[in-house]
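seq:
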Amino acid sequence: MVFLHGGGVSSWMWDKQISYFRAYYHCVTIDLPEQGLNKEGEKFSITNSAEEIIKIIEQISYGKKVIIVGFSLGAQIAIQILSIRPNLIDVAMINSALVRPIPFLQKWIRPSVKLTFPLVKNKFFSKMQAKTLYIDKELFNTYYEESRQMNADTLIRVLQENMNFTIPETFKNARAKILVTVGEKERGIMRKSANDIVSSNPNCKVIIVSNIGHGFPLAKPELFNQTLEKWLKEDALQSKHAL
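struct:
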């Protein structure tokens, strides 16, 4: 079971999932390039990250069932993996993946980051950001320290990759059983993205999680774990079923 984190956080966001599933699954968390503990090496891109993660999965799976779980940026990478190697993954959970580019924002990414980047080191600002991501007090210090260590160019790359991502044509060939989730309170473009993903592969089903924004795994970890567990065990969840 491979967990891929979102932008602005790292593998620690999956702590409650790892503690829940590790008794039954070989759980693997991966810090994406330039993030978390993976500060060295190549610069971040969705495609390169997907290719490197495919190599890791091939090295450790030994022909066993492979489950991939991605959130936000990590969900985009999971889609890329499913598209590059349609037979590699058996079960996938795609959470809050943006697949509709936002071109009008592209030209503002660099100047906006350069202008606001000093705020990243401000603890009060970080607390506000953490709240929007459902990061609790227990995890805040880790989030804050990692935020302080990220440089502006990395953040720009992450945002550009995130806002440019589209569903690859070959995603339709992915053989995995794919659960797509999106928060009821997320932006409209995120809900439309979830529908786009489901429309692009017949093995997908979507769940709209009620009373939640962008951050299902952190906001409601128990419900998240139960939802994933149910998806792994049976096909009982129905398309467009709300939690």
